[in-house]
């Protein structure tokens, strides 16, 4: 539609701020914690459900049941809000603390997460970091995701629950995965809108959320239609990231001054580019900066207005542009200047040594004699 879903924005803002105004009973006993009891394998999910151990084992490859049953998802990933299944109980702060204290419960929670990832065609390849990749049957599972939109609501619930249980780093990887598949690889067109309106804004860390918004803006087409963040603010955030990168490079250079310069300036420039590529993620916030890139981004993004965004800041002034370019030139040029001087010096020394060795041009008298012999020829 070209407009942001502001109902989604308000819902996610309330979630990120820990549900302001929500009151919970402070005297609940452990046996009254329904979600915890379910995860302890003491009760079945309702209505007409199973114990969690049975569910995790028997439904591992049963994609048809996982698709058609709509009761289990609110028990596997409880939230501090009511859902469509009124037999499920909202999660409480006391339950969250009890979940985190139980190793057995948290192991089941990770298994439940892996179960749903498998259903969506995704594999958790690192339980410590939360890193993900496509499953072998991803094409079939992606087709199911594109067909049944209610799974987008389930994914939003999963992301929220990950945040409640202390797995915010898992959130970041899952959101990045869907942004890549929808915006870069374009394999999930029917998930794209949910990824931007909902998934993206479940991230409670402002820094990580900004990085993901910037990543989405980089790959959204047409870029001037991106409505999930003010363009001028996104541009400023990119500039700040670049400045910090340059400062870090300067510090690294000061810490290791003993390194020799290359004989060739061109070789040094190639190494500098390789270091920049290794410094950050393949598609994240620290792209290489040059004069043309700065001008292009400024002309492309600052000139575009932003309607109805939550926050707006002033665009770059000309002085800020000059400062950014000067810092860029300084950061990229320092090593090149040093190496250029050293390279020229070495070449001059080599030439002098060669001429001395060959016995040519030994004295000013030699030069005069050669000049007279050449006659009218110019030297």
Report low-confidence residues grouped into runs of 5 or more: 255-338, 355-362, 375-379
Helix content: 55-70%
The portion of residues forming beta strands comes to under 5%
Determine the number of helices (DSSP H or I, runs of at least 4 residues): 17
Determine the N-to-C terminus distance. Answer: 74 Å
Strand order of the largest sheet: 1-2
Largest sheet: 2 strands, antiparallel
Question: What's the shape?
Answer: globular
- Count of β-strands: 2
What is the radius of gyration computed over CA atoms, rounded to a whole number of angstroms? 30 Å
Which class of secondary structure composition applies to the elements? mainly alpha
The topology string of helices and strands comes to HHHHHHHEEHHHHHHHHHH
The pLDDT mean sits at 76
Organism: Balearica regulorum gibbericeps (East African grey crowned-crane)
Domain Opioid growth factor receptor (OGFr) conserved: 29-234
Biased composition (Basic and acidic residues): 248-266, 289-299, 319-328
Keywords: Receptor
Any key phrases for this structure?
379 residues, mainly alpha, two-stranded antiparallel ribbon, 17 helices, 2 strands, disordered C terminus, receptor, OGF_rcpt, Opioid growth factor receptor, opioid growth factor receptor activity
């Amino acid at each position: 539609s070209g407009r942001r879903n502001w109902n989604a924005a308000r819902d996610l803002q309330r979630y990120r701020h820990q549900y302001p105004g929500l009151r919970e009973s402070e005297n609940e006993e452990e046996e009254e914690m329904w979600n915890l009891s379910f995860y302890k394998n003491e009760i079945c999910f309702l209505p007409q459900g199973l114990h969690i151990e049975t569910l995790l084992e028997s439904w591992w490859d049963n994609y048809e049941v996982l698709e058609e049953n709509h009761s289990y998802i609110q028990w596997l990933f409880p939230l501090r809000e009511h859902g469509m299944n009124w037999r499920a109980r909202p999660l409480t702060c006391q339950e969250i603390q009890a979940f985190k204290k139980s190793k057995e419960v948290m192991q089941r929670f990770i298994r439940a997460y892996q179960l749903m990832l498998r259903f969506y065609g995704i594999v958790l390849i690192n339980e410590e970091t939360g890193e993900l990749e496509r499953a072998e049957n991803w094409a079939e599972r992606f087709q199911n995701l594109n067909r049944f939109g209610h799974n987008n609501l389930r994914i939003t619930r999963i992301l929220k629950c990950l945040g409640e249980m202390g797995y915010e780093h898992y959130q970041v990887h899952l959101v990045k995965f869907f942004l890549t598949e929808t915006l870069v690889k374009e394999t999930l067109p029917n998930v794209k809108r949910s990824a931007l309106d909902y998934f993206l804004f479940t991230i409670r860390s402002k820094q990580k959320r900004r990085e993901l918004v910037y990543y989405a803006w980089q790959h959204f087409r047409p870029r001037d239609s991106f409505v999930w963040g003010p363009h001028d603010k996104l541009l400023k955030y990119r500039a700040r990231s670049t400045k910090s990168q340059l400062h870090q490079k300067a510090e690294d250079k000061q810490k290791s001054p003993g390194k020799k310069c290359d004989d060739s300036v061109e070789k040094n420039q190639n190494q500098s580019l390789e270091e920049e590529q290794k410094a950050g993620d393949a598609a994240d916030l620290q792209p290489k900066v040059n004069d043309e890139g700065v001008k292009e981004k400024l002309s492309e993004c600052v000139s575009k207005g932003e309607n109805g965004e939550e926050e707006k800041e002033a665009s770059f002034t000309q002085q800020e542009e000059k400062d950014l370019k000067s810092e860029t030139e300084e950061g990229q040029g320092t090593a090149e200047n040093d190496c250029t001087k050293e390279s020229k010096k070495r070449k001059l020394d080599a030439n002098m040594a060669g001429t001395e060795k060959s016995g040519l041009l030994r004295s000013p008298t030699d030069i005069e004699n050669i000049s007279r012999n050449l006659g009218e020829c110019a030297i």
